[in-house]
């Protein structure tokens, strides 16, 4: 008997790059997998991830302000989410991502990364996507 995959894809949306994380098949643990350029091919690439990994749900980090409002960046993410919903065949939800990038930078630093590695923004974006996804997975338990 094969168990149906319950993989969830996590996204940290950025103007230049999109951080991508993926859960294990049982939706328990998140791991960062890559970043992709935020360009005309981004939605196509995300759809490929959905098919390749048999993703059942996508979680996109929503950058609320400290007061819990939606600022300009959140409006940009909302627009992306609407396009993503039209591009994929799975549900897309959002999750409050306040402080995720800060925590990701601190985590990369604590992992003993060199200064040069810490300047590679893609590493932080990928880590942020994993933190967003893990937060979502933990809340579902």
Total individual domains: 1
* Series of secondary-structure elements, N-terminal to C-terminal: EEEHEHEHHH
Portion of residues within helices: 40-55%
Distance between the termini: 24 Å
What is the mean pLDDT?
85
The CATH architecture category equals 2-Layer Sandwich
| Most strands sheet | 5 strands, mixed
Relative strand content: 15-25%
CATH superfamily: YqgF/RNase H-like domain
CATH third-tier fold name: Nucleotidyltransferase, domain 5
Question: Can you characterise this structure?
Answer:
There is one protein chain. 32% of the residues are buried. The protein has one domain: Nucleotidyltransferase, domain 5 (2-Layer Sandwich), CATH 3.30.420. The chain has five helices and five strands. A hairpin with a 6-residue loop joins strand 2 (17-23) and strand 3. It is of the alpha/beta class and 141 residues long.
Keywords for this entry:
23% strand, alpha/beta, 45% helix, 141 residues, 5 strands, single chain
